[in-house]
Each structure stands twice: as structure tokens, then as C-alpha cells.
Amino acid sequence: MEISQLINILDLAGVAVFAASGSLVASRKEMDLIGFGLMAALTGLGGGTLRDLILGREVFWLQAEWYVAVCLVVAAVVFFVAPMLQRRFTALLWADAVGLAVFAVMGTHIAMVEQVPWIQAMVFGMMTATFGGLMRDVVAGEPSLFMKPEVYVSAAFVGGGTYLLLLELSLLQPVAAVIAVVCSFLVRSGGIIWKWELPRYKPKAGREY
Amino acid sequence: MEISQLINILDLAGVAVFAASGSLVASRKEMDLIGFGLMAALTGLGGGTLRDLILGREVFWLQAEWYVAVCLVVAAVVFFVAPMLQRRFTALLWADAVGLAVFAVMGTHIAMVEQVPWIQAMVFGMMTATFGGLMRDVVAGEPSLFMKPEVYVSAAFVGGGTYLLLLELSLLQPVAAVIAVVCSFLVRSGGIIWKWELPRYKPKAGREY
Amino acid sequence: MEISQLINILDLAGVAVFAASGSLVASRKEMDLIGFGLMAALTGLGGGTLRDLILGREVFWLQAEWYVAVCLVVAAVVFFVAPMLQRRFTALLWADAVGLAVFAVMGTHIAMVEQVPWIQAMVFGMMTATFGGLMRDVVAGEPSLFMKPEVYVSAAFVGGGTYLLLLELSLLQPVAAVIAVVCSFLVRSGGIIWKWELPRYKPKAGREY
Fold first, then answer.
1. CA A177/CA A170 separation, integer angstroms
2. Which residues of chain A lie closer than 8 angstroms to C72, CB-CB?
3. What is the residue-averaged pLDDT of chain B?
4. What value does the CA radius of gyration of chain C take, rounded to a whole number of Å?
5. Cα(B41)–Cα(B49) distance, rounded to whole angstroms?
6. For the CA atoms of A39, A44, A49, A50, what is the dihedral angle to 10 degrees?
7. Which of B23, B27, B31, B72 is the mutation pick for testing C, counting most C CBs within 10 A?
């Protein structure tokens, strides 16, 4: 598989899961269908838009209809499915974790392609991974996931760092990308589970989940 | 009347009413005159700035002094007039509604001019219409109008959708633009009045107006 | 000393003090080391990034590693030093005041270099000075310094205005820049002290400091 194909698949997957997390927030806020669409697009496309603006590239969804279409389809599906979910916040947390891992690596990769020095490339990874979710939380007026005590920005850092390290060790880009996404996701999962399992022993602190 | 003239008039009108809504928030927060100016500029210019950045155009107010000047004049007028208003929140709501309708159509129009596919053009309409007001509410630390149960994003959606539909039916651009602005405003007005008239029969829920 | 050298020094100093203010917020929120780094970068680089995007320049930290490196070093230092500070909010307030003064003048200067009309140049000054701190406060979910009753945006306005006025009077750029930074800082200091000294006579209102 070529890197460009894998990048496209990962990118679209990241957009889709972030769009799902945005739609879940729209559901928690009891917005209408159009509101779901906008929250999905904001969350799914926000991080990559900022990345592309700062890199001076054409914004990735400007000419490719796929990205916006995926956000709208995801929003429509979540609109009908979310009321059946018992724990929307849990679903949101995991969708966000997948998006975080994918975009941390994508952001770093694209910055490297654009010849940005590695230290800035790491910043691009963290920015792409966190900005969409941040916008989602700010717009919804919720405390951002970002500020909670679970490992969040660090998971994005691990994703970008692992990717650059594996490239340095001469691994092929697709292999390095997949390993880095998995590492980043595992770190974030650890953070979620650590916070999430704990309340089983201290039930009172667990209400918000 | 040519479309370019109409566009300029509508654009300036949208900036002015959004600037008024920003100034009204500054008034509610008891900011000083300079604070009024910045809130007016942020709200009036925010949506179009994001639109132009993503489209890769020159930001519309960068070389044209008119836009910033209009924001500052509006801020100064509101600074002296607002204390006389009995219901600043109501004035804010209606100024925001006019700006929303105008910018939904403007955003869609400008994206079409830049050859963006129609589905993205709709997103540009919604983004241009809502972003300035969103920034206003986030900066002021108020719950965004956006999240309230009245029809908001949907009104922007109707504006952009109507405009594209009427163009498809071969109407002249200025005619299509005016009809679309009116439709969008009516939808939003319906949402406001529905929420606003209701409390007359249930007085307790109406306190916030 | 040439203006370009002075600009670089001032710019880096502004980034460093804003990075410190972002790190202090991270400390108040009990984030981890990576979180400190991101808050430092967001606050230190945010205002200038927006300025450069709107001006259509290359974003200033894209190819120059210094800026990101300075943010990370500051974040690491604050990470270890902050717990020793008795009054983190006070330190934050003063770091923010220095950054505000420096960036108000820098933003105005760079907009002038890019041939932007003076009225917009003033807006760029205020935007560059306030946006990083605004992002810091929004992300942290704190009421923005911006909305507090002390003189804030006005201090940025004074910085940009003084700079343009002194250039009009044919002062050399480095001299004008230094005087303008000092004026802006004095105005902001006055605002802080006025709010801060007052509580000595009315102890109850002073709790938050």
C-alpha cells in the first residue's frame, strides 16, 4: 500500500470519528439536525483547517467534497442512533481518542511533507489532534477534554514523537504511521481507563461518566 | 443594480449589524469605549475573515478602510445609545438575526464565485454567518446563541440553500440574494418569536429576556 | 541598533512572557509537562499567528525554530518554579501585561511594514496583543482578562497609537517602539494597580488576587 493511499484513508477515518464526537456533543445539547451537521463539520475539519492555514496549503476540504459529505453522513447517523445510546459521554470519549491518535500522526506527517523542521512538526501534530475537539468543547460551552486530568495532549505528543522516531529508524512511512497511531491511542486509552475504572471503587466521583 | 454593488451594500450592512450586536454585548459587560470597538470589530469582521482565510482570498477588510471604520462608528453610537435601551438583549437578538441572514447568503455567494463546490459553499454560508457571533459569545463568556433552542444554524442553512436553489432556477443573482436573505431572516425570526412569545403565557421561563 | 534586530529581540521577549503566562495558567489547572508546553505555545504564538494569517505572510514561527524552542524552555522552567510561587495569579498578570505592551507595538509595526492603512494597523496591534491571552483563557475555561474591569484593550490601543504618532513625528523606529511599549505597559500597570491596591482598603474584594 502506498503512503498517499494510507494517508487518505487515515485522514478520512480521523474526520469521521471526530465528526461523530462533535455530533454526540450536539446530541447532549439537544441541537437540531442542522446543528448536528455544523458540530460534526467543526470538530471533524477544525484541526486540519488550522494546520493547512498555518502551513499555507490549500485547506484540505476546499475542493474535495468527500470530507464535508462524510461529516454530514456521520451527523445524520448519530442524530438517529445517539438517543439509543445509554452512555453518550463514553462513546464521545472513545471517538475523540481515535481521532486524537490519527490526527496527531497525520498533522506531523503533513508538516514533514511541507519541509517544516521537526520541532514545529510536533507542534502541528498536537495542534491538528487537539484543535477540533477544543472548538467542539468551547462552542458547546463544556469544559474541554484537554483540561481534564487524563492524559490528553501527551497522547498526541507520543503519536507525533513515535512517528518521527520510527522514520528516523528508517521504517517505511505506512508502517511507522500505523504503529504511531496505535501507540498514541494506547496512551490515551490508558488515561481514560485509569480515570474511568477508578470510580468503580469510589462511586461518588464517577457520576459524570 | 449590479450584483457587485448589491454585494457591497449587503456586506457592509451585515458588518454593521453584527458590529452592533458585538457592541451590545460589550455594553452588557460594562466594557470601556475601546473594548466596544474591539468587540464590534471581532463580531462584525470575524465570520468574513475566517471565510476569506479558508478560501485563500485576501481578507476583505485588509485594504478597505470602510469596514473597520463602520465597526468603530457603530461601536461609538452604541456606547452612547445602549444605556438608554430598556432591553439590550432583545436588540442584540434582532441585530444578530439580520447579520445571520445577510452573511449566510454572502458567504455562500463568495464561495460560489471562488468556484467552490456547492456542498462546501453551504458550509461557507453557515460558517460566515455564525462565526462572528460565536466569537462574540465565547469572548464574553456567555452561552452562545448558537446553542440555544431557537432555530439558529438552520436559518443560515435556509439562507444559503435558498440562494443556490434560486440560482439553479436561473434567477438573477441580486434577486436571488434578496429573496434568500429575507427567507433566512424569517426563519430565524420565527425561532426567536416562538421562544419569545411563549413566555407571555409562562412568565417564569421568560426572565432572561 | 537596527530596527530589525530590535524587532527580533522584542518579538522573542513578547513570546517568552506570554509563554510564561500560559504556563502559569497550566500550573493553576494542574496540567502535566506536555500540557504546559502546549499552553505556552498557544499563548506565546497565538496572537502573531493570527496576525500573519490575516496579513497573508508566512507564519513567523513556521521556519524559525527559536520561537517554539523558547516556548518549550519557558514552559519547562515554569513547571518547576511555579509551585514555589505564592501568587501565581499575580505573576500571570504581570507577564501578560509585558506581553500585551510588546505585541501591541509589534503587531502595529508589522502591519505598517505590510502597507496596511493605519486604522487597520491599529486593529492588528490590538489583535496581536490580545488574541494569545484570549485563547489561553478560553482554553482554560477562565473568564478572560479582557473582560475584567481593568484597562486592558485600551492599553494595547495606547501602545499602537503612540507608536504611529511618534513615527508621524519622525522619530526613529527603534526609539518610537521602545517609548510606545513603555507607555502601553504603564497604562496597563495603572489599571492593574488601581484594581489591586484598592482591595487593601476593602479587603473582601481582594480575595481573587
1. 12
2. 119
3. 85
4. 17
5. 11
6. 80
7. B31
Percentage of chain C lying above the pLDDT 90 cut: 50
Band (pLDDT 50/70/90 cuts) for residue A77 is very high
Alpha-carbon distance of A125 to A112, in angstroms, equals: 10
Please tell me the pTM assigned to this model. 0.87
- Nearest by CB to A69, from B119, B149, B153: name it: B119
Cell (9 digits) for A55: 502551513
Shortest CB distance from A65 goes to which of B53, B120, B138? B120
How is residue C1 written as a grid cell?
A: 541598533
| Amino acid in position C134 | L
Query: pLDDT band for position B192 (50/70/90)?
Result: confident
Q: Is B54 on the interface with C (CB under 8 A)?
A: no
User: If 0-12 CB within 10 Å is exposed, 13-18 middle and 19+ buried, where does residue B5 land?
Assistant: exposed
- Do C9 and C67 form a contact (C-beta atoms < 8 A)? no
pLDDT in tens, B73-115: 999 999 998 888 767 778 888 888 999 999 999 999 999 999 9
ipTM score of the complex? 0.83
In the DSSP assignment, the letter for residue B30 is T
CA-CA distance, A205 to A199, in Å (whole number)?
A: 6
